[in-house]
Amino acid sequence: EADVVQFATSTGDLNRAHVDAEYAAKLPVFGQRLVHGMLVVSYMAGLATRTAVYSLLEQSLLGLLEVRCKFPAPTFIGDTIAVDIEVVEQRETSKPERGVVTFKRTALNQRNEAVVECLVTQLVLRRPST
Q1: Beta-bridge partners for 118
Q2: Rounded Cα distance, 22 and 51, in Å
Q3: For 70-112, what is each residue's pLDDT tens digit?
Q4: Which of 80, 118, 121, 78 minimizes the C-alpha distance to 99?
Q5: How far, in whole angstroms, is CA 128 from its chain's centroid?
Q6: Alpha carbons 128 and 98: distance in angstroms, whole number
Q7: Contact call for residues 89 and 124 (beta carbons, < 8 A)
Q8: By the 8 A CB rule, do 92 and 81 touch?
Q9: Nearest 5°: phi and psi at 128?
Q10: What does pTM read for this prediction?
């Protein structure tokens, strides 16, 4: 809950569905406050940086090219989030020392429901070919 309030005040996103419990309780579909989708995306990024894959790739990262997200289900205050990460595409660029890797990151709540799905595309250094 504190994270939601801090995110709302830091970003200026004070949508009542996130910060007003009485208003959110009357929402016909959810009936409770929602966690900002972009806050969940931020948690996903933080969790991804703690993986073995990221630690191996970290020295090769040149840039973040694109992040595309879908929000198939709501995240509520009190939910526990885990992140599943899968490489879905890798390709060369016109420069042989660089490549592009796309990861699919899926945030799963404690009921194993996908609440956020992101495609994260990054520019990376490639290993020299032998």
Answers
A1: 69, 105
A2: 38
A3: 999 999 999 999 999 999 999 999 999 999 999 999 999 999 9
A4: 121
A5: 31
A6: 10
A7: no
A8: no
A9: -65, 140
A10: 0.89
Chain position carrying tokens 């070919």: 129
Query: 12-32: per-residue pLDDT in tens?
Result: 999 999 999 999 999 999 999
pLDDT tens sequence across 38-73? 999 999 999 999 998 888 889 999 999 999 999 999
Closest residue by Cα to residue 83 from 124, 60, 52, 115:
115
Query: Which tokens in the block code for residue 10?
Result: 């830091």
Burial 67-93 (b: 16+ CB within 10 A, else e): eebebeebbbbebebebebeeeeeeee
